[in-house]
């Protein structure tokens, strides 16, 4: 459908069109056929006697053939140059390029309403690349004296298609456009977005392990993008460590780093319980310090969308959002789910369920039946890790709900001190309520999933460099006699052979061992 | 033909709009005679809309009831009802204003049954309802139909001959108005129907110094279905992330196989220059999310097609997207009531290759101001023909326009010795009887 109007294609197309159009035009007569120059051909053809019409037809056919060859409407040019009644001839000299030929012809016709109309036809034939912009602006303003009607400079008829020589965007302009859009969006947020942004209190339980830096860095970047004032409350199991502290210090956010005395256990069930206690501990701190805002439970391995933070601004007392559950399997061999299991596999979503009038009617929970017996028990095991009933991450609290005294605090909220004292299992925040039906469903009544729950961990004993800094630096000493290449293959093979400690290694080896080599192979000195 | 877009249906105002609460800051307008002054209000509270005031003053919110009286001629149904009954598609296309104006006037408070009291006379003739199977109106019989209607009413009532039609108005929403042709050269050649020489024309076409735009005509927006647009609204805090948006033809291979005629080459120029520009989201597709996308754009292009007007202007105004009007000398709807150059961006056709430079060099304050003006609910209301009619909608703006032309000058009445209408002027084919 898109056709380029470069002259090469114009040659082909107008050739075909010229023949048919020209024939139609010539036989069109006074009322004009489909051609746009019907008006002009009126002036030209109007006064002809029928006897000479064959002559004109033949002439016209000749012009068509010439047009086929040349590639533009030669016949029209000929007609107007030779036969138009009042012709104002103005030719614009061609530009420096010799391949460009331009002729401008102007004719005037008088219509019945005593208004002078001018048609300008511009033909340009460029053998070069892009056709130069042709401006059919009207040179016949001087002709306007009829009826005192101001001449319109808008001309009817065929116009050139203006293409600038460098059609690519200018990077400076692109940047300006982006700045404009940013500013427009800011205004939009100001008019239609949240009127009074509330402080966001993010509660994250964490502990030092191989994947901690991965998870915390991701969460850190998400939180940095939140456009509301934010305080990040990080509870660390096993006491605060320098590694965690330095990671948090680099974030540029307001941090409250709270130590939790117990160490994080190695199996998932206990880990979940410990995390719950850590969160409760954070809530107590919030209560003590009378921190004001919306509490979001952001686990370090979860992924949050920015819309979540926009949505939580709307919470009154306690809200629930839909969480996408990504049950991580870890290894290439997925648990073989039976066909039946696959059929019954529900959507991996946890969150509020609404009835048709938008009221909270129940809860969607993750169906763990297909995974029974195949889940991981120990942290770092290569098996699916499943959430418990309802995850804390799917709930949002108003911190005033936790205060001892707050205006308007509803009576269906239990006092925080009464919770968790007897060592009972604190599965989810609903335990803070007397009546679970007053929870507000957020995110379009739970239809929009605003965050994803995921647990990805390495084995508890997996090694990683402290603070992800290699200290001392690696040293590789290579004997001068030999090129390094055999040594590197030796190094590799020595790692492989690590699993077969009793096998003699007949390959060449280095004289000095690297400080990191743990090979126990007998090495042959050369 | 314009674009090929099919016309659409009605709306309720309230749901569309953010209530205009207060007024924006002082702004002085540099203006020539025809353009507008925006009203200054020291009210100061932060508002996201701004008051609109055109060259005729702050008239968008005027109520025409009580300011004029309109007599509706009871023409035989072959001129109106029977035509619609034969082809009800006429109620949905973009020329449906003529039908809805008639229905509105029949039950309006400005209607008077006593012609002696009337200031204006309205003859309901549906000239744009002869549709091809594809739905495009053919104007070939329209001059004869109009002529036949005028002959009928000049014989039955004396009011036409009293003024030769100077206090009558007609709704002619076709491509080139009362020139009754879709091809511009033919339309110019025909000119406005001679019998309508003295009447007031309410039309969608408007171009300065053009044969088909009479002095004193009222330009109206093309009919757009409010319900359809209403159904596609998205939350207003959805960030506008498209810079320039356009959907439509760039080349009309069917009617203009050579190229260079359609849109005077402006649309083709747009495509060739900006098809690879990431800021310009332009294509010929018909996405299902067309209305939603417009609400996510900062600028919406409204280039001319075969005629300079287009329903895109209405859509852009409704969706708060700043219209970029690329049509030389165009006269926009209700130009005396709405200060279009404060609201839209006008680009000459010859400047299309530098459109990106033009748009990115508009100051951000101007852009925000235009968006505030567009957010004004009166602006959006004035573009619609809702069923049933609502205050400040397009019907009322038309009546306001007619009211502003009152009182009639003495010259409307024909005195002896005056130049009478020539009933045999125009092409011979037009003089044939219609039906």
TrEMBL record, chain A:
Subcellular location: Golgi apparatus membrane
Keywords: Cell wall biogenesis/degradation, Glycoprotein, Glycosyltransferase, Golgi apparatus, Membrane, Signal-anchor, Transferase, Transmembrane, Transmembrane helix
Region Disordered, annotated ranges: 483-526
GO molecular function: galactosylgalactosylxylosylprotein 3-beta-glucuronosyltransferase activity; xylosyltransferase activity
Chief location category: Golgi
Biased composition regions of type Basic and acidic residues, renumbered to the chain: 497-508
Bilayer-crossing regions: 56-74
UniProt biased composition (Basic residues): 509-526
EC number: 2.4.-.-
Protein name: Glycosyltransferases
Native organism: Leersia perrieri
Automatic annotation (TrEMBL), chain B:
Entries under Pfam families matching the protein: Exostosin_GT47
GO cellular component annotations of the record: Golgi membrane
Subcellular location: Golgi apparatus membrane
Signal peptide range in chain numbering: 1-36
A GO molecular-function annotation: glycosyltransferase activity
Recorded topology in the membrane: Single-pass type II membrane protein
InterPro entries: Exostosin, Exostosin_GT47
Superkingdom, natural source: Eukaryota
Keywords: Glycosyltransferase, Golgi apparatus, Signal, Signal-anchor, Transferase, Transmembrane
Domain Exostosin GT47: 67-362
Keyword Lipoprotein: no
GO biological process: glucuronoxylan biosynthetic process; plant-type secondary cell wall biogenesis
Main location: Golgi
Family: Belongs to the glycosyltransferase 47 family.
PANTHER family for the chain: EXOSTOSIN HEPARAN SULFATE GLYCOSYLTRANSFERASE -RELATED, GLUCURONOSYLTRANSFERASE OS02G0520750-RELATED
Annotated protein name in UniProt: Exostosin GT47 domain-containing protein
């Amino acid at each position: 459908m898109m056709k380029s109007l470069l002259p090469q294609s114009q040659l082909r197309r107008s050739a075909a069109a010229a023949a048919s159009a020209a024939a139609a035009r010539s036989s069109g007569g006074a009322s004009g056929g489909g051609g746009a120059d019907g008006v002009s051909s009126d002036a030209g053809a109007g006064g002809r006697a029928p006897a000479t019409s064959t002559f004109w037809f033949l002439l016209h056919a000749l012009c068509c053939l010439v047009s086929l060859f040349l590639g533009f409407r030669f016949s029209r040019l000929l007609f107007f140059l030779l036969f138009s009644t009042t012709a104002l001839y103005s030719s614009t000299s061609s530009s420096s390029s010799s391949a460009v030929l331009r002729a401008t012809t102007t004719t005037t016709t008088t219509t019945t309403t005593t208004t002078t109309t001018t048609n300008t036809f511009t033909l340009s034939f460029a053998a070069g690349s892009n056709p130069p912009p042709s401006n059919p602006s009207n040179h016949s303003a001087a002709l306007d004296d009829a009826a005192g009607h101001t001449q319109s400079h808008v001309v009817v008829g065929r116009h050139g298609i203006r293409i600038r020589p460098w059609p690519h965007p200018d990077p400076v302009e692109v940047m300006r456009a982006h700045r404009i859009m940013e500013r427009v969006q800011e205004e939009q947020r100001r008019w239609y977005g949240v009127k009074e942004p509330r402080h966001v209190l993010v509660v994250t339980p964490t502990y030092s392990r191989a994947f901690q830096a991965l998870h915390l860095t991701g969460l850190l970047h998400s939180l940095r993008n939140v456009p509301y004032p934010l305080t990040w409350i990080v509870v660390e199991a096993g006491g605060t460590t320098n590694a965690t502290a330095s990671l948090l210090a680099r974030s540029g956010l307001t941090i409250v780093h709270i130590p939790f005395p117990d160490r994080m256990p190695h199996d998932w069930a206990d880990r979940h319980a410990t995390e719950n206690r850590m969160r409760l501990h954070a809530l107590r701190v919030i209560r003590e310090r009378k921190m004001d805002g919306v509490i979001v439970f952001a686990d370090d391995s979860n992924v949050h969308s920015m819309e979540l933070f926009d949505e939580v601004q709307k919470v009154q007392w306690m809200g629930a959002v839909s969480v996408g559950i990504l049950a991580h399997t870890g290894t290439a061999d997925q648990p073989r789910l039976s066909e039946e299991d696959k059929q019954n596999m529900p959507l991996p979503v946890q969150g509020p369920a609404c009835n048709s009038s938008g009221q909270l009617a129940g809860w969607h929970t993750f169906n763990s039946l297909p995974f029974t017996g195949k889940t991981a028990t120990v942290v770092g095991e290569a098996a699916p890790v499943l959430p418990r009933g309802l995850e804390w991450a799917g709930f949002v609290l108003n911190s005033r709900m936790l205060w001892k005294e707050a205006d308007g605090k509803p009576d269906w909220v239990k006092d925080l001190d009464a919770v968790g004292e007897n060592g009972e299992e604190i599965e989810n925040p609903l335990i803070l309520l007397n009546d679970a039906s007053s929870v507000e469903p957020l995110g379009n009544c739970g239809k929009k999933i605003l965050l994803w729950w995921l647990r990805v961990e390495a084995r508890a004993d997996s090694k990683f460099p402290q603070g992800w800094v290699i200290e001392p630096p690696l040293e590789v000493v290579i004997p001068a006699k030999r090129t390094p290449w055999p040594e590197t293959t030796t190094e590799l093979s020595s790692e492989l052979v690590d699993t077969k400690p009793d096998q003699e290694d007949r390959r060449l080896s280095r004289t000095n061992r690297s400080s990191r080599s743990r090979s126990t192979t007998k090495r042959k000195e050369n | 033909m314009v674009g090929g877009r099919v016309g659409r249906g009605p709306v309720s105002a309230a749901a569309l709009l953010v209530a205009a609460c207060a007024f924006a800051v002082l702004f002085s307008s540099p203006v020539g005679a025809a353009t507008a002054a925006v009203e200054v209000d020291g009210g100061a509270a932060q508002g996201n809309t701004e008051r609109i005031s055109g060259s005729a003053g702050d008239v968008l919110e005027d109520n025409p009831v009580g300011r004029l009286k309109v007599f509706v001629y009871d023409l035989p149904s072959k001129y109106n009802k029977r035509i619609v009954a034969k082809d009800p598609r006429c109620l949905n296309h973009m020329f449906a204003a003529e039908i809805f104006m008639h229905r509105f006037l029949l039950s309006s408070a400005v209607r008077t049954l006593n012609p002696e009291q009337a200031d204006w006379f309205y003859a309901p003739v549906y000239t744009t309802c002869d549709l091809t199977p594809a739905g495009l109106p053919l104007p070939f019989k329209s001059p004869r139909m109009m002529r036949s209607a005028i002959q009928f009413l000049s014989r039955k009532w004396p009011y036409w001959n009293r003024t030769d039609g100077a206090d009558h108005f007609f709704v002619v929403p076709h491509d080139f108005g009362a020139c009754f042709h879709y091809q511009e050269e033919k339309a110019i050649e025909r000119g406005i129907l001679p019998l309508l020489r003295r009447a007031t024309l309410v039309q969608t076409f408007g171009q300065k110094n053009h044969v088909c735009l009479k002095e004193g005509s009222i330009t109206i927006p093309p009919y757009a279905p409010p319900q359809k647009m209403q159904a596609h609204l998205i939350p207003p805090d959805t960030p506008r992330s498209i810079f320039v948006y356009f959907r439509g033809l760039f080349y009309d291979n069917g009617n203009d196989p050579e190229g260079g005629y359609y849109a005077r080459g402006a649309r083709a120029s747009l495509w060739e220059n900006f098809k690879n520009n990431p800021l310009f989201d332009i294509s010929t597709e018909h996405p299902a999310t067309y209305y939603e996308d417009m609400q996510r754009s900062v600028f919406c292009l409204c280039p001319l097609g075969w005629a300079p007007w287009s329903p895109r202007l209405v859509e852009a105004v409704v969706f708060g997207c700043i219209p970029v009007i690329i049509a030389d000398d165009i006269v926009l709807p209700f130009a005396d009531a709405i200060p279009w150059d404060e609201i839209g961006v006008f680009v000459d056709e010859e400047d299309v290759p530098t459109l990106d430079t033009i748009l990115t060099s508009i100051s951000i304050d101007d852009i925000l101001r235009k968006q505030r003006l567009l957010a004004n609910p009166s602006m959006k209301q004035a573009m619609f023909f809702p069923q049933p009619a609502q205050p400040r909608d397009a019907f009322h703006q038309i009546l306001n326009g007619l009211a502003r032309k009152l009182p009639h000058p003495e010259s409307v009445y024909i005195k002896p010795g005056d130049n009478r209408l020539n009933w045999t002027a125009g092409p011979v084919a037009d003089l044939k009887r219609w039906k």
